[in-house]
Specification:
The protein is an alpha/beta fold and 426 residues long. The chain has two domains: 5-219 and 327-418, FAD/NAD(P)-binding domain (3-Layer(bba) Sandwich), CATH 3.50.50; 225-325, Succinate dehydrogenase/fumarate reductase flavoprotein, catalytic domain (Flavocytochrome C3, Chain A, domain 1). It has 13 helices and 21 strands. It has helices spanning 12-20, 39-42, 56-66, 73-81, 83-93, 124-138, 202-209, 241-245, 265-277, 294-300, 302-310, 366-385, 406-415, and strands at residues 5-8, 27-30, 47-48, 99-100, 103-104, 117-118, 142-145, 148-156, 159-167, 170-175, 178-181, 192-193, 214-215, 220-227, 234-235, 249-251, 285-288, 320-329, 332-334, 346-348, 353-354. Strand 1, helix 1 (12-20) and strand 2 (27-30) form a beta-alpha-beta unit. The protein binds flavin-adenine dinucleotide (FAD). InterPro entries: FAD-dep_OxRdtase_2_FAD-bd, FAD/NAD-bd_sf, NadB, Succ_DH/fumarate_Rdtase_cat_sf. Residues 4-368 form the FAD-dependent oxidoreductase 2 FAD-binding domain.
Amino acid sequence: MNYDVLIVGTGVGGLYTAINLNENIKVLMITKDSVRDCNSYLAQGGVTTILGEDDLESFISDTLKAGNYKNNVKAVSKVGKNSIKNIKNLSRLGVPFEKKDGKLKYTREGGHSKNRIVYCEDQTGKAIVEELIKVVKDKSNITIMENTTLTDLLIEYNTCYGASIINNNRLIKVNTKAVVLATGGIGGLFNSTTNFASMTGDGLALAIKHNIKLKDMEYLQLHPTVLYEKENKGRRLLLSESLRGEGGVLVNLNGEKFIDSLLPRDVVSAAVLKEIEKTPDKPYVYLDMTGFTKEYLTNRFPYIYEECLNRGLKMESDLLPVAPAHHYCMGGIEVDLYSRTNIEFLYAVGEVSCTGVHGSNRLASNSLLEALVFGENAAENINSKINEITINLDKVNSFSDSINMKPLINYVKGKADHRYDKLFNC
Ligand SMILES: Cc1cc2nc3c(=O)[nH]c(=O)nc-3n(C[C@H](O)[C@H](O)[C@H](O)COP(=O)(O)OP(=O)(O)OC[C@H]3O[C@@H](n4cnc5c(N)ncnc54)[C@H](O)[C@@H]3O)c2cc1C
């Protein structure tokens, strides 16, 4: 196959890159499963935006503080500065962010010093992905292939010439001018995670194979409030941080507060793990939402309310057992401010990339924002260069029909904090 651009992944990173590419660029998008099976679809809390120019400094300060000052300040500043524009664009495309009297409503999550997160009930990711899919499907220059897996990148002399993919047991070589990796995170490597099981870090495994630079892989994020279910394996139900942002409180098994519930995730997760160590037969604490009425909870958090009810828990009267689980990978393929990797014509956006925005601990709701801003960036850079590039047919003919995951698994295990040992699935 010959395409100008191959985008691997149909989460917010991939979709937003695609819609920002010029319409004379022939694009192929592929996704392992169905187009909606991506972590972006699961996002609950919302998307961060600065409230105005005068909020930029405070946004940067909150992001750096949460990231333990390991962040790239230029990247943080870039996502902050470009936030309002991209939220406006999503609204224009039809994303139904909550509003009051025609103005956006803002919620709050841990680590933010003020309410600055826009949201769509408690299924913000679904609302965004649904609108972006509509836009992409309307564009005649973009083809989407579902159930199609990237198996290798065609790289020679530091240049990417395309990729190999598998569809219906057919191994296909795709010659391109540029490839965008938007393959998401690595939650599928863990037995207790909020991610889809298919998020196995395929882009990162190929990065290791081809000596593409990775950065900050030691920084893995646990989410402190994931519903504890003894029998459940694999993907767990996230209880969004916005529950605490709206007033929910963490208490231990004796009903006592043990931490300020709105501190950044790494601090809260560490405090929860410490509490849990005291009661190994009951490895959880409680999220207390009983201060709220059923009416409020079903309006503000309809999805989470329903999911809890399906598991026999009434949020207005039952304490919700929670424990930390793997949630997000701060590290990834190192990219510059234009989403470029160290390989010519290979870009990375979204969770697979490491822009440096998150430092060692991502501030809540900054991930979708990063995927939007750096997706737009990648597209702009490709738009400006594409006419200078020719497709090199048959330039690279050595590629594989499967990805060897072992080196990535060993690499991540080697980097991870020993507290994660129990969480690994492999
Ligand atoms: C439960 C949950 C709630 C969250 N809530 C929020 C929130 O409120 N706000 C926020 O900012 N962030 C949130 N996050 C994080 C955020 O959703 C993700 O980090 C972000 O959506 C990642 O987007 P992405 O486009 O990089 O990857 P994803 O949306 O995960 O998409 C990855 C894509 O890559 C494809 N893919 C992977 N490997 C291959 C392969 N080999 N071949 C072909 N395709 C492949 C997948 O099929 C998928 O289409 C949440 C995450 C989870 C799990």
